[in-house]
Write a structure and sequence with these properties.
Layout: E1 9-10, E2 14-16, E3 27-31, E4 53-55, E5 61-66, E6 69-72, E7 77-86, H1 90-95, H2 107-118, H3 123-134, E8 143-157, H4 162-165, H5 169-174, E9 180-183, E10 226-228, H6 244-250, H7 260-269, E11 276-291, E12 295-296, H8 297-303, H9 307-328, E13 340-344, E14 349-354, E15 357-362, E16 366-370, E17 377-382, E18 389-392, H10 425-438, H11 452-458, H12 482-491, H13 497-500, E19 508-509, E20 519-520
Parallel strand pairs: 1-17, 8-10, 14-20
Antiparallel strand pairs: 2-4, 3-8, 5-6, 6-7, 7-11, 8-11, 9-11, 12-13, 13-16, 14-15, 15-19, 17-18
Helix pairs in contact: 10-11
Length: 523
């Protein structure tokens, strides 16, 4: 793990949790246990009741009142958001490769299913675990529970991929068999959908389990029966096998060579509204029940033009990333404006301390919340453990959508150079995602905005060029699609969050009032 990513002990406990009635959420056979927990706690003695144990969240779910509301164990009624992710590959499910549940399969298919269900690195598990650990920081959503279950009906937004896959033979052949399709015009608002861009004990109801100390895996440098998902990018390759040539290709980076008008025409053709969904029946999912947010960072930009407000909110993002990087060696790896949410707050400030320096950051009524950790890489050490455990999202697997961003264990391609986790990736990626929204006239316009120069610096490569726009500064993206992600991972090194805090001295104060809560980044 790089020097900018560090692991500290975290207060995470495992215990026996009450069985929940989840029919109102369209979930069957719910259980709080998922395989990543076996790598953090000693679970051998649990035997057949292991599935009844899960993470003990401080405000855990007592019962579900309705599709949008729960009661917590301490008697609070809370509005919640449910983030639900399929465990198995949606693409392979659509193709019918998994066959009928419960029937024999080829050894290759059986292994694929087992790996996805049982692997601690499965993206859905990593996302749930990461959300649970970071929930103790006020700049991440509170988490009330994690459930692994069978979804009666699961809806997936495929709008971004529909044009590429709709005429494939497997898509036409399996339509109405392994999945159902819902197509609506962008102006039709009748279908609502949420988009998005882990010693023996007495086995009582509140039993805690010890951590497990084993050899660590190193990371080197709608209501009712319908469950709606976050947006998922489907692998559109016709072949499931990754050849040596394709493995080589995914590590290559191609910069844009098109003319400026081509890019403008392409932008005009894009539509931000969802229009295509597929529906699966009886599929295994992970549901993280969390704090309901009010909107995204893009919503803040649309509703508030005050540059001082923008700056304070971005510094909240920096504080959140710095805390996560220095606590669980965290990289988000997909941080764009839709993965930065907010809640309304009456608190005037957020307080944090970094290396002895106190930061008091105004909220202006909005508390930032970073979400969606299915592509995260983290290193977690439960209190008392000697060595941390690494959890690296399966989205980096050679068969999956993020292959090529890094080259690290457990997905290391040995004949390719190692590409370690990059502590600058998240802040640089966030800057690229909102730069044109905030500064539409481009890098050569003299913007009087406190974030203009920092954003440009975060997007600067080692050779002085920008990872976002071309050397001609023609307001044209230098990289398109996933090439941008790969370029940021390799070339951007000027956006380490804890270091970038020093840019914002206006938020430093000598000390805090004794009664205010604060969190620490570096002691």
């Amino acid at each position: 793990m790089g020097k900018d990513l560090r692991t500290l002990p975290v207060d995470l406990k495992l215990g026996r949790l009450p069985k929940l009635e989840t029919e109102v959420w369209g979930l069957q056979k719910p259980q709080p246990f998922f395989p990543s927990l076996e790598h953090l706690f000693k679970t051998e003695q649990l035997g057949a009741i292991m599935e009844e144990f899960g993470i003990k969240h401080p405000d855990g779910i007592e019962y579900i009142a309705n599709p949008d509301t729960i009661w917590t164990r301490d008697g609070k009624e809370v509005n919640v958001h449910r983030k639900t992710t399929m465990i198995l590959s949606p693409f392979k499910t659509m193709k019918g490769e998994y066959g009928h549940p419960g029937l024999p399969k080829s050894s290759e298919v059986a292994k694929d299913i087992s790996d996805r269900l049982q692997n601690q690195h499965t993206a859905a598990y990593v996302g749930a675990l990461t959300a649970s650990v970071l929930a103790s920081c006020p700049l991440f959503p509170k988490v009330y529970g994690v459930l692994v279950s069978m979804a009666k009906t699961f809806v997936l937004d495929i709008s971004d991929d529909y044009v590429d896959i709709c005429e494939r033979k497997w898509f036409i052949d399996n339509l109405g068999k392994t999945f159902e399709l819902n197509i609506q015009s962008p102006s039709d608002s009748t279908f609502t959908h949420t988009r998005g861009q882990r010693a023996s004990v007495m086995l009582g109801e509140t039993a805690d389990l010890e951590f497990e100390d084993v050899d660590a895996e190193e990371v080197t440098d709608q209501p009712g029966d319908i469950v709606e998902s976050e947006e998922y990018a489907i692998d559109k390759d016709e072949s499931d096998d990754v050849s040596d040539d394709s493995k080589s290709d995914v590590f290559d980076i191609e910069s844009c060579g098109c003319e400026e008008q081509d890019d403008a025409e392409e932008e005009e053709e894009e539509c931000d509204e969802s229009f295509a969904w597929v529906t699966f029946k009886d599929v295994p999912v992970v549901t993280t029940v969390m704090e309901k947010c009010a909107g995204s960072f893009y919503d803040l930009l649309d509703s508030d033009e005050d540059s001082q407000h923008h700056t304070a909110w971005v510094v909240q993002i920096i504080l959140a990333l710095a805390y996560a990087q220095r606590t669980i060696g965290f990289t988000h790896n997909d941080l764009h404006g839709n993965n930065v949410m907010y809640v309304n707050t009456e608190d005037e400030f957020v307080y944090a301390k970094n290396a002895g320096v106190c930061y008091r950051v105004p909220t202006y009524g909005k508390l930032i919340k970073i979400i969606d950790f299915d592509r995260a890489a983290v290193s977690i050490r439960v209190q008392g453990m000697k060595e941390p455990r690494a959890f690296v999202s399966s989205q980096f697997h050679p068969d999956e959508e993020a292959c090529g961003q890094y080259n690290i264990e457990p997905y290391l391609v040995h004949d390719k150079p190692r590409i370690p986790l990059n502590a600058s990736f998240d802040l640089a990626r966030f800057a690229t995602s909102v730069f044109w929204d905030m500064f539409p006239r481009g890098p050569d316009f003299a913007y009087d905005h406190p974030l203009f120069e920092p954003f440009k610096a975060w997007m600067t490569c080692a050779d002085g060029t920008s990872v976002l726009y071309r050397e001609s500064h023609d307001n044209h993206d230098r990289y398109h699609g996933f090439d941008l992600y790969k370029a940021i991972a390799r070339f951007c090194t000027n956006a380490v969050p804890r270091k970038e805090l020093l840019r914002f001295k206006q938020f430093q104060v000598p000390s805090f009032p004794a009664t205010v809560p604060f969190f620490s980044i570096d002691l």
